[in-house]
Structures are given as structure tokens and as C-alpha cells.
Amino acid sequence: MEFIKDIIKAIEEFAPKSYQENYDNSGLIVGDPSKKTSKALITLDCTEEVVDEAINLKCGLIIAHHPIVFSGLKSFTGKNYIERVIIKAIKHDIAIYAAHTNLDNMQMGVNQKIAEKLNLVDCKILAPVSGKLKKLYTYVPKAHIENVRKALNDAGAGKIGNYSDCSFSTLGEGKFKANEGANPFVGTKNKIHTEPEIKLEVIFEAHLEQKLISILKETHPYEEVAFEIITLDNKNPEIGAGMIGKLSKPLDEEPFLKMLKKKMQTKCIRHTELLGKKIERIAFCGGSGSFLLKDAIAQQADVFITGDFKYHQFFDSEKKLIIADIGHYESEQFTNEIFYDVLSKKFPKFAILNTKVNTNPVHYY
Ligand SMILES: [Zn+2]
Asked: How many angstroms does the Cα of residue 114 sit away from the middle of ligand 1?
């Protein structure tokens, strides 16, 4: 038996909720996080059939990629499948959790699974996001600087690409006056004190903010710790939408499409006109990725693989690349493996079951 909140914690350590898009609703949607369960059921979509399966298998938690609820529900009468799923889950004491765009936006998330299936190399994020990196400035008395620096670095601050433990420091003078009621670490009350201090600067990923503030307050010797946090415009190359990578050996267009169809287990690929060129650079995005077409073209992809392209959007390829729409479900069907990998590593004795329901609402004749 594991606490639902511990399962959630493990998923969010891998895919922090702060990386989800504004329109999204990732997180615990139904259920009490302080309850325990012995089994979780993993699925792409939480449909009524999946809830029935969870009831039969006695799973106390459903972990889905797509949130069943996106916007506010005003009644629970069972008039549509969303309300019926929620009602059924609550009646049977089943929690529903979703990790959606936060999992899409991770370098090791949904798109990494596509890269693995297609054996792509040199993969990087296609459209890195900005606003997810922050910087912390703090002022530390000289004797304590290494202690504070190490504690912040150990907690994940100062990671830039393949480098860790990055920081910058400058020596200066801190001035302060401890008033009545204060208990100063150095200096005397009611007198302005000057202390040699080091200004320490570290970059960090936004989701670490609360953790770093607590660690700073624990390790900094002052009663009142001076610090500032700012949000940076810098893009985080490890977080964002879509990916771009290469085939280890270029392929002609038709063998490529054949390979794509087989590896992604799709019955149908809707694609733009073939261009008579070798395929090597592959842009891809699980789910509805048409918004990334311009990025795929700008980065000179030979093909852009995603789902949910509309008729008029196919024209936008302008013969610069081949759009290959493999279907939304098909492009994300291996997402369950991510949940399985993360949870089985952390909770080796906990039962993680894959749904047997094919939740794809699209059928091919
Ligand atoms: Zn999706």
C-alpha cells in the first residue's frame, strides 16, 4: 500500500506541475491524497470503461495523460461522459490523477518515447520555453558562503546544460541596523553594522523555488535572510514543446513512412506530397502539434510527425517538409511506459497496471 500523495510526488519530481501550459489541468482531479492504495491503473484517457476496469481490478488510483476535466463543471447529473466518469470514480472511491502538458514539455517525457521508438539520435527540444528559469541573489557573511553555496547546489540550483554546481559570487559590504526585538547574528542592536558579505547568484528551475528558499533560510546564519528572486527570459533548452532529432541513417521517403507506420503502430498516416528527398532530420510532437510547424520548418526538418492536423494546415508545409499526421492517440500511446518506468523504479512492490482498454475515439475502416 502506498499513499496517493507519495505516488503523485514521484511523478511530479519527474514532471513538475509548474511545467504545464496555462490552459491545462494536470494534477489530482478526484480523490483524497492522504488515502492509501495498493494498485494504480495507467491510461492515456480516463473513460468510463477505464473507471470500470479500475473497479474490477480494485485500483484506488487512475493515472492518465489527458485530464478528464479541463474547465469548471457546474453540475454532476451524468449528462455527459465527463460527469459520469467523475461520479463513478467518487462513488467507488477511486482517485484520478493526470500529468499532461508537464509531461509533454519534459525532455524525457512524451516525445522522448517517440524518439526511442524511431531510434532517433541527437534529439533536443524543438521549441524551448522561457519564463521557467529563475535566479536567486543572496548575501552571505564570508565564513558561511561555501556552506550556503553547497546546500543550494545540492538542492538542484546552478544547473546549466551539462554543467552543475554553477554560481557566481562577488565580495561586498552588507549594512544593517538590528532594531528592538531583533536577535542579530553579528553586530549590536540599534547600531548600524557593516559586515563583509558575498553576493551569491544561482540560476534554478522555477519549480525548485520553495525548496531553495527553505534551504537558504536553514543554512544562512542570519535571523533575517536578504534575498531576491527574478524570473529570467532565458529559454530552458530542456523544457518545451516538440523535439527534433536525426535518423542514424537517412532513408528514402517511402521506406521512412513504412518504418514510421510500423514503429508507431498506426493504421494510417495522413501526409503531404512527397518531395523526392532523403529523410534525415525529424521533428515530432506527441498529440496536437500543428502549432509547431513553423519551428519544424525553421529548423530544417525533412518531416514533421504529429497528430490532429487540419485540412488547411497541410497547405502550410509549402513543400518545405513533409507533414506526417500519425493520429493523436497513436503518437502518445507509449506515454503509459513513462508512468510505469518512473513508478516501478520508486515503488518496486507497488502494482502498476496498464489499461487494456483502447481509448482511441478514432477508428479506421
Ligand atoms: Zn494528447
From this structure: 13
Query: pLDDT tens digits, residue range 149-168?
Result: 999 999 999 998 889 999 99
Find the 156 Cα to ligand 1 centroid distance in Å.
Answer: 30
AA letter at 30: V
* Same-domain check for residues 77 and 136: no
Q: Are residues 121 and 253 in the same domain?
A: yes
Task: Read off the pLDDT of residues 341-352 as tens digits, 9 standing for 90 and up.
Answer: 999 999 999 999
Structural domain of residue 79, as residue ranges? 2-103+334-354
Q: Which residue has the cell 510526488?
A: 9
Q: Are residues 249 and 317 in the same domain?
A: yes
CATH number at residue 17: 3.40.1390.30
What is the full DSSP assignment across 108-170?
Answer: TSHHHHHHHHTTEEEEEEEEEEESSEEEEEEEEEGGGHHHHHHHHHHTT-S-BTTB-S--EEE
pTM, whole model, 2 decimals?
0.85
Q: Are residues 138 and 200 in the same domain?
A: yes
Q: Which residues are close to ligand 1, an ion, with C-beta < 5 A?
A: 287, 332
Q: Which residue has the cell 493520429?
A: 327
Q: How far is the CA of 327 from the centre of ligand 1 (A)?
A: 10
**Predicted local distance difference test score (pLDDT) of residue 107:** 84
The whole-number pLDDT of residue 238 equals 86
Q: What is the CATH number of the domain that holds 145?
A: 3.30.70.120
107 C-alpha to center of ligand 1: Å?
16
68 Cα to the center of ligand 1, angstroms:
12
Domain stop point among 181, 205, 232: 232
**How far, in Å, are 257, 265, 275, 310, 323 from residue 272 at the CA level?**
12, 20, 9, 12, 5
Assign 22 a pLDDT band (cuts: 50, 70, 90): confident
Domains contained in the chain, number: 3
Q: Residues 311, 343: one domain?
A: no
- Tens of pLDDT, residue by residue over 295-316, are 999 999 999 999 999 999 999 9
